[in-house]
Amino acid sequence: MKKFNQLLCVVVLTLFTTYAYAQSTIKGKVIDSDVNSPLPGANVIIKGTTNGAITNFDGNFTLTAESNSGEIVISYVGYVSQTIAFNGDTDLGTIVLMSSDVGLDEIMIVASIAVDRKTPVAVSTVRAADIQLKLGTQEFPEVLKSTPGVYATKSGGGFGDGRINLRGFNSENVAVMINGVPVNDMENGRVFWSNWAGLGDVTSSMQVQRGLGAARVAVPSIGGTINILTSTTDIEEGGSVMASIGNDGYRKYGVTYSTGLMDNGFAATVSAAKTDGNGYVAGTPFNAVSYFFNVSKEINDQHKLSFTAFGAKQRHGQRQNRQLIDTYRRSEDGIRYNSDWGYKNGQLTSIEDNFYHKPQISLNHYWDLNDNTSISTAVYASFGSGGGGGTLGSDNEAPGFEGDARFKFQSPDYRIGEFGPLDFDRIVDENIANGSNGSSAALRASRNDHNWYGVLSTLKTDLTDDLVFLAGLDWRSYTGKHFREVTDLLGGQFIINEDNENNPTGIARVGDKIAYNNDGLVGWLGAFTQLEYDVNENFNTFISLNASNTSYKRKDYFNYLDGDPLQETDRYNFFGFGAKGGANYRLTNNHNVFVNLGYFEKAADFDAVFPRFNNEDINAEAENQKILSFELGYGYRSDKLSANVNLYRTAWRDRTETIGFQLSADETGFANILGVNAVHQGIEIDFVYRATDKLNITGMASLGDWRWEDDVTDVQILNEEQEVVNTVNLFIADTPVGDAAQTTMALGLDYKLAAGTRFSVDYNYFDRLYADFDPSDRGVENAPDPWEVPAYGVFDTAFTHSFPFGKFKASLIARMNNVFNTKYIADALDGPGSNAETALVYYGFGRTFSFGATLKF
Asked: Is 11 helix (H, G, I), strand (E, B) or coil?
């Protein structure tokens, strides 16, 4: 027995020793090749097993293998996977994952991408995997709704009509850049997301830089910058087909194929998708065809070329007109109610719709002059064609009338039921009866075509190991073609419009231009320079300067006879400039702080220079807007927790405000009203907590205090004889800024059920949303604050599962937004008395869903 026990001990000890010897510990750090930053959340798996780990916020991982040797596979969406052998306990050191997109690292130089814990700005990044998981039937900006400082809605609810506010500033004051190229409208600064239908399919990552941002070009980033990087061309050959369905007839089909990087240095990717549906809001059907094409060529070690073209041809019905809350309550369609559509001969016909096609084309050249110096240049062009529908005519029976037919189109007398859709057939019958008097009501399109060309070139050189110098030029030329055309005479033979001095008959038929026809010409020339100083890996600082000249010119083909010198104006130039700087300091491996400060002056927009839409009343002395911004931030990183706290204050001085007045019976004048100021300040907190290798908890809270600063009172407007012709009063002191929720919060759970299977739940809460209003309309003292919309919160959920399917890889995605069908008001326009009874509103969407499948090959 004693010998047996001894033998048993020897066997157990031998087995234990063998098992212990067979175990291996593998550790390392995973970073990306583009900006040398850690890749948290990268998958590390022992090849041929399910044993794995996920990198922490610093990119580090530790993994125990049950064998003495083998291979690990490291993967991350958007990057080329690596397989690395190990033998015994192994420290793999730093592992660099290359982007799966050819030329993406060069694009990032032009795009001014911020680096976590290095670039001293408040930044949030959404990668392709999260966009694909959560976008679904949402508007593209809504992917960012859990980001601090962001308020994104569907606006009227038509396809592509979404909008976004950042720290209380609307799209005119938020710079949007795609691959480093500014896309804000050159005349008014707006961004129309319907022009970029399908952008979510080709986005590699989307980065929100709040406040001053990291962009070096002079862009209107008062609230911040949204930097979108599209995919380029995959290094590896492959492709995919996808299909998706959703609520209210939503359907989407698409295909993508990439050649991979070939031996001759060429690589190409092409992607196309078709989307259509009925729309959640009544009378808003839509269809869109989106496309993306990229071809890249590595000429040699010094030169790379990349050609990209993408766009979407789309048309969708719109809900342009907000309604009283009582109207939604009484309507059979409820929150889906829309007054801007009807039936004509049994076919759905939109009163208001949008149609547009805006291809974006760019040629990028990357030139490595030597080991220290490179030049990245983007030559780009955009050709926009389309506009928005609306009404034309009046209720007058006599020919030669002017005005619009809005009342007739909105009147209950012309509706099927009290709030029902419009009975177009009745208007058609009336127009036919008018005979030689022409149509008294018709449909039109307001066109906004444009041609846009630009060059953006950046020189980057390492002056020393620690000092980097960047400089560049930014040239843009834009021509906007604005006119209105007849699209449907609704049974009539013609319509009378006497606004064209070059058409004395005043008769217009389908396809003819009416009401106005003019061009807006905008020129831009800017220069920028930046110094980045890395004292060591713990301390980084920069200073950046930019200057630009904006020129405006107007041509008018309707208000003046051909050959009249007034038909074309001179060019009016406006100088703008900016300076910003900041520093980031890593106190320890876990803690960092940053600070930034900047001041810039933004030229007034096109309409401020030509406020009466003619070539005579020109506001050549339009004032620059002045912006001073300050930010202080703190970051914490550990194996489990990543957290950020940001304090900001942005002072917006001399918001563009003009007033017109009569100099004489035949002459008008304009004055620039100064002192219309606002202060946007607040605190933002966001975190990611990796509770386990499978569970991530995310959260954020954004508490803003956005207010108009001072009253502007007793401003005397003088004519040339120094006589007072008007007095201006704006009682806006301490009035909350409207149009965006000043308090937002979010909490999210992301659980990895298994390899390739994820489930997420997100809750978003919005409060202190004040109805939008124009400060210049507040001319009455002691007026109440704008109406405050009731607070609301919504739950969203998404599920994805990937699995082998023969030789292919299949994935399924299911999404549901507003799971509990919460009824809420997302947008409001203040009314008389600033209360719920008079406010004009849009309701947000109720419960929506989508389900999609993708097959990769």
From this structure: helix
